[in-house]
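Before a colleague's protein record goes any further, I have to sign it off. What it holds is a sequence and that sequence's fold in token form. Would you go through it and say whether the fold makes sense for this chain? The record follows directly below this note.
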Amino acid sequence: LDALVLEFGITTAVAIVHLTYWTPLALALRSSRGFRIVYDCMDEWTDFPNIGAPLLLAEQRLVDEADLVTVTAALLEDKFRGRAARCLLVRNGVDFEYFSRNCVPNGVVGQLQRPIVGYYGALAEWVDFKLIAGIARARPDWTILLVGDVFVDDLAGLADLPNVHMTGRRPYAEMPKFLYHFDVCLVPFKVNEMTQAVDPVKFYEYVSGGKPVVSVPLYEMRIYGDYAYFAEGVKSFISCIDAALQESDPGMWQARIALAKD
């Protein structure tokens, strides 16, 4: 860092911290060089996989010391408002022009049977695999398409179901191509303290294509009740997916696209 400062003649800078592991370095740079600190908090780290007590303690110090804390969720804003010198809510979004330019006819899914109920993102601990498996078993005429890397050992039998297709990790450039083929998009998370504070990037990407979204009732998504279907449990999800598949109002598609564009 000293060499970098010399080579580029850096006189002032901002250290943007995403993971609190870097708290000591950020504080040291402010002490030695006057570099300001922004803590960009994207998740509720309590109970997050592989985040232990030392990082949670480092977060407390970082929130107390940072010049600015930015958060993606109202719950996080409430959590830090009384402690941070400045706290700003900055929700997630979508690269609208990129998605609208690339969400076009393509052959990325081959000859999969429609309708396609799709999800893309990490297949990690916060995904409710039992819920997805229950939907797939109840509606064998639907194709459940899961696009993403697998980070768990127990998939609740999903890999053995004939109407479930898992692509593994695919490049970001292919996400709008997969989105084009989704008839209904899922946000099938477990509902807990961690996920309640999630403002899902995939929601904004999904609606950039006008697609109907069926999601668990996350606290941060409550403001989008006019744009998404909220469901709990297999029967509720199936009912909402059925309703989404039967949508006949083009105005709903345009409203979702307008939301993403905004």
Observations:
- The CA atoms of residues 162 and 180 lie 22 Å apart.
- The mean pLDDT is 95.
